[in-house]
């Protein structure tokens, strides 16, 4: 309570100082006050500081103990001045440990507190980006409902109920619904309040224009129609900007983490030739610089990438307990049938998997890891047990590293095959969606119902989508209505484009039978998403090719060093150059096996991470980069075991 009152007084003395933090907390929908957040931030900072203080105290104690064991005297780390054994009755070691712990506490607590103060602003920026990315989809949904006769508050309520599809935009519109339902505000006042608190500038502008239309009595449908086309064009422009930035990232990656490590590797080999101990430096380049640097690049690309919201579908289950205290009389008429049905539902998925296991892996590629990972581990363990009597560590590593690489390929190759198969199926379906919706709109425009339109579309040649249309028709023949059949289709093929299409069409069909304009809107939205995807693939294909070419150059140079340069150095006798002295006196003592192993591992790691980067830049997915990684690792494996 004292800390709470202290923070309250602290904030009350200078409220302007904390105005930015308060705005960030509101815009990020943190759900806490400034005082409560500061209490948590201070408490967390103290906790992290104590943790680092303990770690610093223990590590400094170990260092002091090692100094005593080696017989060296304690010195200050900067000036090198020798320290006394003790100051009065207190040993100098304890004083140093306390000093290190205090310094660690201060630095860790200060950094944690600073990050805590900046975190709401970062969350606000992230929410703003997500809102901007899905706003044109939400406006298209608003236009479809408005054309069907929906009132504005009904539209906001409907979007807020689909937060699993429209993401942060739905959460923002939920604020309008909350203010109207629980705080008694009218829709204009609720929109004004959201306009003050939303983190997205684009949404602010849209809400201001919407308020102008409402207050002037303008045509809402016309306004929403113009905004749909405007936001779609802006989405295209934003992607062009992003692709320009991504091209810069690709060129920077090739320069820093392909050409850079290659240059350092050559320097390290020359240093080893001249007698310097370059093994540690080359190990740092191979095992630290390449993985850590590439991982940071991947994180940076992920942070700035234009990503769709993750779509999820929830099924609500309601349990009725109105008569929970009433005794239930057991009957024997239908109970056995219910038990049989429960057993059937329990084993249905197992039977479906056994009848078509490959289809189950294609639908969810991560399932194959349950099989490939144990196989890969067993493969490694078997070969580790077979390696016996290796004379030294280098020989042992030379015998097992190829098998570890093969085990990694055993794990990743099946996953990449099924992942690519699933992506190709999704790509075929999504590319056919605009044509499917255009044809449905034309059929609906002449007066046929949606069910009749589906029956006609069964005979259309729409590739992979044609099979799914047949399943939709079969669901309706077995008793499902049009909306239920579409929802089942969405559950089978869960992608953002299909989820938005299904929600848009089902909601519009509930409001009106003539939804040809809504279908045209959905077709335009799907076509825009497909065009953006294809433009990105086309623009980034050249950089994927550059990554492959740079990796080939890396392999070639390292292969020349390993096959032509190092064996010559290893054949030089130490005595033949030691008498001459000079810069090349250490030629005969170069650890050739160690250098050869490090160069091999550098090629493997370079290929693996370059493949992941190529997939992330070209197809906006690390999973898509697994196939590139496997291809490059196989190239390195073959090159070093056959050519080099």
Automatic annotation (TrEMBL):
UniProt GO cellular component terms = plasma membrane
User: Organism's domain of life?
Assistant: Archaea
Mostly located where? membrane
What keywords are annotated for this sequence in UniProt? Cell membrane, Membrane, Transmembrane, Transmembrane helix
Any matching Pfam family: T2SSF
The record lists the membrane-crossing segments as 37-65, 98-117, 242-272, 284-304, 368-391, 403-422, 540-561, 626-643
Is Transmembrane one of the keywords?
yes
How is this protein positioned relative to the membrane?
Answer: Multi-pass membrane protein
Where is this gene product found?
A: Cell membrane
User: Where does the Type II secretion system protein GspF domain start and stop, copy by copy?
Assistant: 140-267, 436-561
Q: What protein does this entry describe?
A: Type II secretion system protein
Q: Which organism is it from?
A: Methanosphaerula palustris (strain ATCC BAA-1556 / DSM 19958 / E1-9c)
